[in-house]
């Protein structure tokens, strides 16, 4: 049964319609702040609201613009109950529209430069070898 659900789930289409991401997490003290910031960055990048509930770490509720509506640090707060009234909806973002293809252009440019450098190097070697063989023996 689970296989059929996963088989038919088109993740990119699902995320395109998502208005709220519920993100359960479990961190440790040293990495908790970084993981929370990364989750907020991804929510802004994709343009949807996010609730990140961390079992051990920093929980946060943010909208698609990155505005914080509630937060709780498991390590510093004695009362571990929090409430956040979070607006749910999408914010159109360029990354959500074009995805990782934004990185394809610089990658293709870099490949072109490397290809040009390799071809130039080989051409110089071939010309030098041709000049060496073209010289008459003295």
What report would you give on this structure?
The protein is of the alpha+beta class. It has two domains: 91 residues, no CATH class; 34 residues. Helices cover 49% and strands 17% of the residues. It contains five helices and four strands. A four-stranded mixed sheet has the order 1-2-3-4, covered by helices on one side. Strand 1, helix 3 and strand 2 form a beta-alpha-beta unit. The longest helix has 31 residues. The chain is elongated and about 90 Å long.
Please name the defining characteristics of this protein.
alpha+beta; elongated; 138 residues; 2 domains; 5 helices; C-N_Hydrolase_sf; Apolipo_AcylTrfase; 17% strand; N-acyltransferase activity
Largest pleated sheet: 4 strands, mixed
Strand content: 15-25%
For the secondary structure, the number of strands is 4
> How many domain regions?
2
Head-to-tail CA distance between termini: 84 Å
Instruction: Give the quaternary arrangement of the chains.
Output: single chain
Uncertain ranges: none
Q: Secondary-structure element order, as H and E?
A: HHEHEEEHH
Number of contiguous helices = 5
Strand order of the largest sheet: 1-2-3-4
The helicity comes to 40-55%
Whole-angstrom Rg: 26 Å
> Any idea what the shape is?
elongated
**Averaged pLDDT, please?**
84
Q: Structural class, please?
A: alpha+beta
GO molecular function, one term: N-acyltransferase activity
InterPro entries: Apolipo_AcylTrfase, C-N_Hydrolase_sf
